[in-house]
Structure formats: C-alpha cells, structure tokens
Amino acid sequence: MPRAAQPVAPSPAKTAAPTAVKGAASVAQKALQKLGLRRDIDLALHLPLRYEDETRITPLANARDGQMVQIEATVTASEIQLRPRRQLLVQVEDGTGSCELRFFSFYPSHQKTLAVGARLRIRGEIKGGFWGRQMMHPAFRVAGGELPAALTPVYPTTAGLPQPYLRRAVVGALTRVDLSDTLPPSAEPPVTQIYSQNGLQRLFSLREALTFLHHPTPDVALSTFEDHSHPAWQRLKAEELLAQQLSQQQSRRARDMLRAPVLRAQKAADGALPLHEQLLAVLPFSLTAAQRRVGEEIAADLARKVPMHRLLQGDVGSGKTVVSALAACLAMDAGWQCALMAPTEILAEQHFAKMIGWLEPLLAARGRKVAWLVGGQKKKDRTAMLALVASGEAALVVGTHAVIQEQVQFKNLALAIIDEQHRFGVAQRLALRQKLAAHGMEPHMLMMSATPIPRTLAMSYYADLDVSVIDELPPGRTPIVTKLIADSRKDEVIARIGAQVESGRQVYWVCPLIEESEALDLSNATATHADLSEALPGVMVGLLHSRMPNAEKKAVMALFTSGQMGVLVSTTVIEVGVDVPNASLMVIEHAERFGLSQLHQLRGRVGRGAAASACVLLYATNDSGRVGETAKERLRAMAETNDGFEIARRDLEIRGPGEFLGARQSGDALLRFADLATDTHLLEWARELAPVMLDRHPDLAAKHIARWLGGKSDYLKA
Ligand code: ADP
Ligand code: MG
C-alpha cells in the first residue's frame, strides 16, 4: 500500500505568517468550496495534475541542469546580501558536490533552519553545471525520516488553497469516503458478456484506482499517466461514462412514463384535407428523400402517447424548417397549439418568415392565427398576443425565449420546436416541459441543430434523445469554393468584392467576435465598415452588430435582403439562419479565431441560390509576415470538405465537446476523465451496461449516479 507522501515544507515565499494560520484555514475552506470540492467523494475524484518525485535523493554530482531533484546536503555558509536586492544566500554540499540556494523572501524562522551545519532535505530545480549549481527558492526541511514510497501529488488548485492543505484534505477524504463497488458483479451472465465483449474483464476497483492515482509508486511509466491508458485511469473513465449513461437512460425511462397528446393527421371539420397535405401541395418544391424519411420518424413519435424528445440534425441549408413545419401541421390539425423558437429575434423572424408565409393562409381558412412573441414588444401588442395564445386562437406561436416565460399561458401546447437548440439552456427546456401541466401532460419537443453532432457525442451527451439526420441537400445547390488567403492580400479580396457587386451579387464580410472585449469587437467591425465603404465607392455597405437596437438591425437586414445593399459587414450575428440567395461571396476575417463548425455555419450563408459561390477565409500572418502555420493547417479542412459531419468530427478532435454542447450542459456536467475521441470502447460498454443495471440493480445504479453526479444530474435531464 503506498503511503501518503509527507509534504516537504514549502518554500518561504509560499507560506503565510504563523499568526494568519486560523484565517488561512477558513480561506482554504472557501477555496475548496469554490473548486466544487464539497463532499469527500469530490476530493477523492480531484486528481493530481502531475507528481513530484520525493522518493529518492539525487547526489549533486548527478544532477543535471534544469532537472527537478531532491538532495540531502549540509549547510556550509549562510548570509544575507543586500545588493542588488535583499536576499538570503545559502551554500550546501552533500559530499559529491555543492550548490547555492537563493531566497528573495524569507522569515527569521527559515534563516534558523538554514543555519550553518544543518542537514537538510531540499527540492528544487537545478540551474547551472558542475562549477556553479544553484536553486532558486527550493523547498526544504530538516533531513531525516523515511523517504515516501509514493510520488507526491500536485493538485489543480486556486488562490488561498496551498498544496499541503489540499493534500491533507484529499488523504482525509480518501480514508473516510465510501468507495464500495457499484458495478454489478461480473459473474452475472449478461454482465459478464458486456465486460468481455468490450475487453474489460479486469478493471481496477475504484479504491485501487483512486489510491493509485493520488499516490502512485515511482516505478510507473509516466506515459501511461499522460495518455490515461493506465488501468486506474480506465476504471475512472468507465465509471464516469457509466454515470452519464445511467443518468440519461434513467431520465429517458422517467419520460416514458409521462403522457403527451397523441397527434395524427386529421381532416378539418369542413372536410378539408389535413394541414400537412395542404402544405405539401403549396410548397414550390418536393421533399428530398431524407426530408421524407425524417418526417416519418417524427410523425411516428407524435402518434405515440409518450412525449417525443427528438433532435433533428441537418447541415445548413438541408431544409429542416419545412420538416418542422410539417410536424407543426400534425399538431395544429387536431386543434392543439405549436410553439416555434429561435435564439434571437432577427433569427426568429428571418427563419420563420417563409414558414409563416406558407402556414398563415392555411390556418386562416380554419379561423386560426399565428402569434408573435419577442422580448422588446410593445405592451399593447404583447397583451393582444398573450390573449391569442391563452384562448387557443393562435395555433402557432413564433418567437424567442419570450415564448417560454411564465406569463405565457398556452391553452394546449402540444409541440415545441426549438431551432438552434444548443443556444437554449436546460432551464428553458424544463420550463417548456411545464407548459402542458394543466392537462397533466407534457408537450412533444423537436430540437433542431445545424451543427452536426459527431456520433460519440450523440451517444454520450445526447443519450436521452432520439436523433434524426437529414443527410442530403436539396438538388441544384452549387458547391461553395473555399479559399484560404493571408490577410496581407486583403486588397485583392476587396477588389474581388467590387467585381461581385458589379455583377449584381451580394457579399458578407464577417469580423470575428472577440469574447473578452465586445467593445474592441465593435471597433474592429466599425473600422472594417469604414474601410470597405471607402474602397468601394457607389456600393452600399451596411454594418450589423450585436449591440445595435433591434429596429436598426431589422432595417439593415431589410436593405440587404431586398438587394439594395451590396455588402454587409457584421459580427457573427449572421451565423445562423439568414437566407439571402443572391449573396454569393462570404469573407471571414481572422478565420483562425473561429471553430471549424462555426466557419461551416457561416459559409452556409452563401451557395443558397443558383450562382457559383465562394468563401474566403482570411487568416492572420504574424509580424515577420510568416504564416500562422498551425492555424492554416486547421483551416485547410474547410477547403477540403463541405461535409458538415466531417468538419464536426475534426472540430471535436481539436476543440473538445464544449463547443458543441453550448448551453445544453453546464461546465459541471462535462466529462472530466473520459475522452470521447479515444474512449469509444468504454462508452459502448457503459451504454450496454446501464440498462442492465437499471433493470437488475436499481439500488447500485442510484448509488452510482449519486456518487458521480451528486446534485448535478438535473443538468442532464432536459
Ligand atoms: P436549414 O436546414 O439550414 O434550416 P432551411 O430550412 O432554411 O435550411 O432551407 C434552406 C432553403 O432550402 C430554404 O430556402 C428552403 O425553402 C429550401 N428547401 C428546403 N427543402 C427543399 C427541397 N426539398 N427542395 C428545394 N428547396 C428546398
Ligand atoms: Mg434553419
């Protein structure tokens, strides 16, 4: 059994004065809370960032420049120097060589420990060679005592929480915490099979794994820590993925117990055709095979008495809107209401204008209406809309987050459609689910996303959802040509814009959003707007940014949509939804600052009409004029493929899952140990084991979820 390493006294610079000890403890307590380390299990799962090897003493003669070493040596001289600044200089030697210790901050007590003749154990980084070795601010203490048998953990920490305190807290937690196994006994036949099929017959126990990861023996190959392939790591990753699967499959089961309205196509009272057939008849195109297939999947869900939670995925321009409109028809046919939401007002309007254009006349023939609900609405309008919604006269309610607000009382909301679902948070989805509570039911939910979610992500974070994919674009789209161009050649690009506008086309110019500074953002966009206006005399150049009042945004968009405006400079507000088929060139400045999926979304704003379209990715070159090679390498994927799924897969590799999940997950609920890019076999294992556990060992399942997710499991449920 590896023992907890005795912490070496920290260097003076890091220690608080003794009188401050009590205060320091409460500061440390607060810091623990801040790191989310509340329960013993949280501390037990707080793994070291790295380890220090205090298990051996290195003779000074063998210590190389730059090496972290622990030495045992005797002080031969100790003095305070005042120039160039006050410092304590201590000479030590261990019989094989000597070394100078240098401290710029020190207390009298430290000076005493470092007195001539003292035998010390010292740890630090060696600088210099045989003739002049030195350590700056090493840790030290009086020599003696056994060397620890295990490596010393160094934990992620925060201000006010010193390593020794955190180490003691973890050791204490490890002795107290219940780590009894929650995995079902592998002797049970179905469980055995799941283990062996996934090559997991021999896992460490959780206690073994944690003891090991906090205090590994020094003989372990560091590489197995680094790539997390060590069996101790495997166990933790397996446990974590299992908790995620259990929680999501459990919430799916809970949902299956709930009731939702059964929605099927119905003729109107006067014998008119069902709404969705009427809609199909007025559409100026016929559906693609993928749209039809997905439409049938949704219709089958809606005909069940269990609430649908389906994610509709499809690349930009794949035609999700019309599929959702057809679903809405099924709901509205039977006299129920349907809500349609987008994350911003501009998007809601842009996005659904066409859909409303199709549906409004059909609804009017049945004496029903479309209601519009957004944040900045006039009180009078809003009151009128709310009345329409409450009476049920509004069959379709379109808008932003405003649709979910508490004051909005639906008569009978049967289907909620959420566009760009990743921009809506958990709380909002939960609120929506309450909107049919008066009927003792929940509405069906259809969530749409233009960011294709890679399969492993769908299997893990979205395990509680059903997924439909539109994997085909409507016919007749011209592929977009993507070019990477160094920003030193911006002038050429501007000249090309001139030519496009001349030939009657329109152009988007996107300035990157710099998250840290919205103000800087704005000034960049404003400057670009001025530059382009000057370089393109006679062309109307517009500016759109997130801080503009809505009315102004609308006015700008209207000018661009109508074709009067040739160039639209904007921050990423056009990221989703804008549909101007005449726009044929998209220029993205500082493309290296965007995620690939984001770039793909932006690029999807062109190539929507018949004209040949292009996307120019301008990337920054550094001062010496050289290319940011890694940035360019990453961007090259954009030129190589137009396939959103392929791009998403590469993006996941590069940037991890956070980007895809957006508001769906709080940072808390993200996987900490498992890596979806490499741990697919563990994910498969967890996915197969979870239902068996829920069926046969509900008590173990509950314990496992509580241990891993504590109060956080709610985040996974909406
Ligand atoms: P997205 O999936 O990005 O939301 P939209 O629903 O906005 O895509 O559709 C993009 C464009 O394609 C719209 O103008 C829409 O009317 C049109 N469209 C949708 N389905 C088809 C189809 N089957 N054939 C031709 N055009 C279609
Ligand atoms: Mg859309």
Features of the shown structure:
single chain, 718 residues, alpha/beta, OB fold (Dihydrolipoamide Acetyltransferase, E2P), Rossmann fold, 24 helices, globular, disordered N terminus, binds adenosine-5'-diphosphate
Q: Care to describe what's here?
A:
This protein is α/β, with parallel strands linked by helices and 718 residues long. It folds into 4 domains: 12-52 and 150-227, no CATH class; 60-142, Nucleic acid-binding proteins (OB fold (Dihydrolipoamide Acetyltransferase, E2P), Beta Barrel), CATH 2.40.50.140; 275-470, Rossmann fold, CATH 3.40.50; 480-641, 3-Layer(aba) Sandwich (Rossmann fold), CATH 3.40.50. Helix content is 39%, strand content 16%. It is built from 24 helices and 21 strands. Strand 11 (369-373), helix 13 (379-391) and strand 12 (394-399) form a beta-alpha-beta unit. Helix 9 (275-282) packs antiparallel against helix 11. The chain is globular, with a radius of gyration of 32 Å. It starts with 20 loop residues before the first helix and ends in a 9-residue tail after the last helix. Mean pLDDT is 84; it is low at 1-19 and 663-668. The structure holds adenosine-5'-diphosphate and magnesium ion. The site of adenosine-5'-diphosphate has 16 residues, from helix 11.
